[in-house]
Task: inverse folding
């Protein structure tokens, strides 16, 4: 049974503290739903979890092992779905997906895995359509099919339901449920209400901080004489 | 010690008193150096009065190279230990180094007119200095090319390290290239047999340029720190 | 290694389908060279004297112009994020993309060179050395350019900025590349220049992917 967790994570983006002191814990079969207003750091947290963004403080661990020790190994056990769908307009859906399936899951049986993933998401008929003809919703589903085409225990999905209709959302709910039954984990940020049984909810609004310069730190004991406005900063939470 | 949240207020408090000292030393050293160089030292038996350009030219060239090495070291520290003050030192040094580089090129070309009969000769040292000037310009262009100031600093740090590895290769290839296309009458400057009456003003000027560098980058780092505080206040306004 | 080949194959097939890009680089290369006779006059002696330098400078500029797109499209459509999460070291990803860039631009430039050598009246003695020097030098241009291409991701005015960053770094390759041809034309040994070009390439081979990987990582943060 695998455990993915993070302790005292601190994220700074463009000199702004997005969240601080954030802890989470996720076990095999679990799901974590990230909620919070715009700018509360849902996407940033997913990028931190994926290793695309380095947390300014705190650490991620997988089964107790620090993720920072083996970033490539960590990348190998996760799938990340961001706001961009990575579909090449001049390649067919099949070619697009086979590349990722081979890169992530090995060449053996990659074609079958792709065909199966497309069928699962109900877009089997798009197999040989070039990427440039796809609608936004179809591109999104192709990107999700990429996740299905190569097995990985951890899925990090950043608003996967944008541009999708009700049927497609139900198909995704079913695949997520199937993934969790098989011992997989999901971290998902979403605006739409998705049906994820027994999911933990992490409200990022609890971890936001008022903006401060990166040069004003917690242990800044000399701050009072220079900058009285900042004296109460470390304890304050916004919202 | 090298923590992400280096204490800038402590840095400000420790270094603010240094600013007037650095400024005073700069004025005294450059003043003395200029007096000795322009009035008290003898003219060169070969080059005449124009040799006095050396007292500005040579220290500028030294400082241009010194600033670039300093930037590379600061960038490496900033990348490895994530120390924001190191990043700021690199950022603050660039325009100063570029100015020294320009001064070296400008005085070099003025010196070239009486020596070579033309303002510009593709002499190996001048050419290397010109390439170094371009490296400075590229660094400054990159650091200002992003909306997020941190992003610019990180990209520019990588560039300055790549450049630092390249500088010896560029120097070597320019020297090679120059020996192939040697201009007719290059006067070899300096050499070990320089007279003490010329060495003293040279050293004073070099020291004065160094204290000037310290003075200016301290002021620039202080400005950057205040600027970062202003940005934080602005963002607080946005967030309410 | 298998991953490297996969990325290389994908980039090559993408380049083939957008074949005009590759052709445009070659056309730029030819056009830039053809401008020189108009600038300096058509005397065969003058052209022969400057041929190697002109061809090298044009190759340098052509290679740099095509560099901007190296990571740009993958950055814009999100593929670059997924490539960094492919459990393949980022240095190898850079290496694969550089190899694809060289095969789709460096190699066509070398193939177009004989035509330019004739147009520029290059001494036949220097011809094979020019090809050899370009073969040794253009991979270095692609490697160094990749670092610049990674650094400018997400910046304003990417293209002009890129030239400012990497053209000064191209100077050593230019010096030794031209000097090899000049030496061959003058009947001198060229071994030293070619060895230095090869040495620069071998030095750039590990260093540039490493720096490019670091640049990509910070671009995606």
Result:
């Amino acid at each position: 049974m695998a455990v993915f967790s993070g302790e005292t994570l601190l994220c700074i983006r463009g000199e702004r503290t997005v969240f601080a002191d954030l802890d989470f814990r996720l076990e095999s079969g679990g799901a974590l739903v990230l909620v919070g207003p715009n700018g509360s750091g849902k996407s940033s947290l997913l990028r931190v979890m994926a290793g695309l963004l380095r947390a300014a403080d705190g650490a991620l661990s997988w089964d107790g092992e620090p993720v920072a020790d083996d970033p490539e190994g960590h990348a190998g056990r996760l799938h990340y779905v961001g706001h961009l769908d990575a579909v090449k307009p001049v390649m067919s859906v099949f070619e697009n997906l086979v590349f990722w399936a081979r890169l992530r899951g090995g060449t053996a049986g990659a074609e079958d895995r792709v065909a199966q993933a497309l069928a699962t998401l109900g877009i089997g008929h798009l197999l040989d359509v070039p990427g440039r003809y796809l609608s936004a919703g179809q591109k999104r589903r192709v990107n999700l099919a990429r996740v299905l085409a190569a097995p990985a225990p951890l899925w990090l999905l950043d608003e996967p339901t944008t541009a999708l209709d009700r049927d497609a959302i139900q198909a995704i709910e079913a695949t997520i449920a199937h993934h969790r039954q098989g011992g997989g984990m999901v971290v998902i940020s979403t605006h739409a209400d998705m049906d994820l049984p027994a999911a933990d909810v992490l409200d990022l609004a609890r971890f936001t901080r008022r903006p401060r310069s990166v040069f004003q730190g917690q242990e800044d004991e000399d701050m009072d004489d220079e900058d009285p406005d900042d004296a109460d900063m470390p304890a304050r939470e916004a919202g | 010690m090298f923590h992400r949240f280096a204490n800038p207020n402590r840095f400000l408090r420790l270094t603010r008193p240094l600013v007037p000292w650095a400024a005073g030393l700069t004025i005294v050293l450059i003043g003395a150096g200029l007096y000795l160089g322009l009035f008290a030292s003898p003219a060169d038996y070969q080059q005449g009065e124009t040799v006095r350009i050396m007292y500005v030219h040579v220290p500028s060239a030294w400082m241009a190279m010194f600033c670039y090495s300093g930037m590379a070291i600061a960038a490496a520290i900033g990348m490895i230990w994530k120390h924001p003050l190191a990043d700021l030192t690199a950022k603050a040094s660039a325009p100063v180094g570029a100015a020294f580089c320009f001064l070296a090129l400008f005085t070099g070309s003025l010196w070239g007119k009486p020596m070579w009969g033309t303002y510009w000769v593709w002499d190996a040292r001048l050419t290397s200095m010109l390439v170094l000037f371009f490296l400075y310009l590229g660094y400054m262009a990159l650091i200002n090319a992003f909306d997020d100031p941190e992003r610019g600093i990180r990209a520019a740090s990588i560039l300055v390290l790549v450049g630092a590895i390249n500088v010896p290769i560029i120097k070597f290839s320019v020297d090679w290239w120059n020996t192939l296309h040697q201009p007719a009458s290059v006067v070899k400057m300096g050499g070990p047999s320089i007279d003490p009456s010329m060495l003293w003003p040279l050293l004073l000027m070099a020291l004065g340029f160094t204290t000037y560098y310290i003075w200016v980058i301290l002021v620039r780092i202080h400005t950057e720190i205040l600027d970062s505080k202003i940005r934080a206040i602005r963002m607080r306004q946005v967030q309410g | 290694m298998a991953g490297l080949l996969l990325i290389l194959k994908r980039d090559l097939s993408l380049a083939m389908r957008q074949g005009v890009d590759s052709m445009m680089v070659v056309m730029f290369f030819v056009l830039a060279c053809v401008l020189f006779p108009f600038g300096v006059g058509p005397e065969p002696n003058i052209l022969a004297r400057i041929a190697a330098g002109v061809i090298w400078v044009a190759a340098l500029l052509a290679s740099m112009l095509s560099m901007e797109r190296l990571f740009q499209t993958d950055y814009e459509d999100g593929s670059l994020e997924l490539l960094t999460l492919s459990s393949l070291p980022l240095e190898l990803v850079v290496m694969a993309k550089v190899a694809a860039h060289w095969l789709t631009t460096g190699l066509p430039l070398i193939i177009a060179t004989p035509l330019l050598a004739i147009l520029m009246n290059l001494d036949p003695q220097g011809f094979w050395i020019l090809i050899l020097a370009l073969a040794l030098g253009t991979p270095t241009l692609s490697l160094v350019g990749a670092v610049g291409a990674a650094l400018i991701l997400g910046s304003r005015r990417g293209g002009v900025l890129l030239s400012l960053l990497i053209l000064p770094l191209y100077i050593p390759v230019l010096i030794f590349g031209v000097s090899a041809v000049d030496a061959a034309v003058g009947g001198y040994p060229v071994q030293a220049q070619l060895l230095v070009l090869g040495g620069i390439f071998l030095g750039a081979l590990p260093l540039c992917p490493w720096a490019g990987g670091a640049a990509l990582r910070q671009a995606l943060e």
